[in-house]
Write a structure and sequence with these properties.
Length: 79
């Protein structure tokens, strides 16, 4: 499995658990994603990070696009 590093101190992260996240696709079907929880072993840092699956990034982009479109529609109605 691919190793992750802490974005703050670049220490190698240790997996401490996982969490389920749900995302709704454009088709309306729900998808379950497992996001790993990781802790930085560096005693100075000790930050907890959540691994963000690549699939959530294009999904967020789509949400932003539809939000922009609907806000533009509202602005047109109230100039
Ligand atoms: Zn760290």
């Amino acid at each position: 499995m691919e190793k992750s590093v802490c974005p703050i101190c670049m220490g190698e992260l240790e997996i401490i658990g996982s969490r389920r996240r749900y995302s709704i696709e454009a088709t309306g079907s729900r998808q379950t994603l497992v996001v790993r929880r990781m802790r930085c072993p560096n005693n100075v840092c000790r930050k907890i990070h959540h691994e963000l699956p690549d699939i959530l990034v294009p999904y967020k982009y789509m949400q932003l696009r539809s939000w922009r479109r609907s806000s533009r529609r509202i602005l047109r109605r109230f100039p």
